[in-house]
Design goal:
274 residues; mainly alpha; 9 helices; 76% helix
Length: 274
Amino acid sequence: MFERIKTALVLVAIVLSCMFATTSPYPMQTLMVIAATIAGYEWYKLMPKQDASIRPFFVWGYTCIVLIVSVVALFSHDITLLFWVASILVWITSVYWVKNFPEYDSWYNKSLNLLGLILVSAAVSAIFSVWKHSPWWLMYLFLLVWGADSGAYFVGRKLGRRKMAPNVSPNKSVEGLFGGLMTSGIIVVIVQSHYLNLTLSQHILFLILSIFTVLGSVQGDLFESMIKRRAGVKDSGRILPGHGGVLDRIDSLLAAAPIFATGLYLLKFIGVDL
């Protein structure tokens, strides 16, 4: 437990320093590149097994591709938006996969390599884009995801009866989902009432965006759990003592970040200034 807390404190300190210590984009870009590289490595290790003699070559080759594409996504706004939309389509499709696992698992094939490339690149570029909009909006995104996860855990532990996806994550319940939505809802209400000067219709749009972001975070968690279960592993990696891998820490953000970033873009497009 102490090791887990120590790792969490170090991670929080690093992330907050990159977010708030300077207005220079380089620390945040560097953090995103590192996260994408490690996540790409871990993602490929979860893919269907290959011949042991050629696997290391492909692991590092794939990792380099994820690194390059993520860098391109970070610096090219036009491509970034395409990655976000593609990512959201993948997450919508994955709902069917999670719901029908393990009876339907034909999704577990080499095409997951491409999906991983899209999801990781979309997530890191979305996080960076939200940070550029405002570090506080990125903090809001983190609080939404953290609130949903914490609320789901505590409510599910006390009141959980109906399993949400028993074959993927037996501990997650429908009651926990509503608990997570309620916790995140409190965060939304506080932000809307104290920090946003919007019309009623704009408040409703922002609320809808926040709800979809939270639902996306839940799906991201479930999807990674399903991949790990199919691959026969408990954690995506061991780089973070007490926490597993980078993917284990950002699985919710893989889905939530592109949804939130796309929502901010659309709200700005229709004239909602956040």
